[in-house]
Amino acid sequence: MNDNEVGYDYQQVLKLLKFMRSIRCKTLHPRDFTEKYQLTQAQLAELLGVSIQLVKTWFARENPRQPEQRYLDRLAEIDALLEIKKVIDEKIPPHLQALFNLNNRFND
User: Fold this and answer.
1) In the 8-state DSSP scheme, what is residue 92?
2) Which residues contact 89 (CB under 8 A, 6 or more apart)?
3) What b/e string do you get for 70-80 counting C-beta neighbours within 10 Å, with b at 16 or more?
4) What pLDDT does 82 receive?
5) Are 98 and 106 in contact (CB under 8 A)?
6) Helices 69-91/30-37 angle, 10° precision
7) How far apart are CA 12 and CA 45, in angstroms?
8) Phi, psi of 8 (to 5 degrees)
9) φ/ψ of residue 105, rounded to 5
10) pLDDT of 8-43, one tens digit each?
11) Is the pLDDT of residue 49 over 90?
12) CB-based contact 25:72 (threshold 8 Å)
C-alpha cells in the first residue's frame, strides 16, 4: 500500500511537524488564552492547577501581576495541543480519527 492509496498528505504532515517544533515559541498571556478559548478565570485556574486568586492578579485593572514563565510555558503547551487537536479533527481521515477516539468508546 502506498501513501496515495490512503489519502496521505505529505505536505500536511510537514506542516504539522513544523508546527509541533514551534510549540514553545508561541506565548499567550492568560488574557489572550481565555479570550481565544472562551474560558472564565476560574476555568483557567483549574486548567493550570492554581488558585483563582492568583489568576485574578493577572487580570487586575490596577497593577496587574505578570504570570511566572512556568505558567506562560504551560499555556503555550496547552494551546499547541489544542491546535494539534484541531488539525487532527479537520485533516485526519475518519479511519485514523477513530484511533484517537478508542478511549472514548471504552468509557461510554
Assistant:
1) S
2) 97
3) ebbebbbeebb
4) 86
5) no
6) 20
7) 34
8) -70, 125
9) -65, -35
10) 677 877 777 676 666 555 778 999 999 999 999 999
11) yes
12) no
**Residue 82 Cα to chain centre, angstroms:** 3
pLDDT > 90 in the chain, percent: 43
At 3, list the grid cell. 501513501
For the record, the C-alpha cell of 56 comes out as: 485574578
- 41-48 and 30-37 helices cross at what angle (nearest 10)? 110
C-alpha cell at 17: 511537524
User: What cell does 92 get?
Assistant: 485526519
3 state DSSP class of 29: coil
Q: Which residue has the cell 494551546?
A: 79
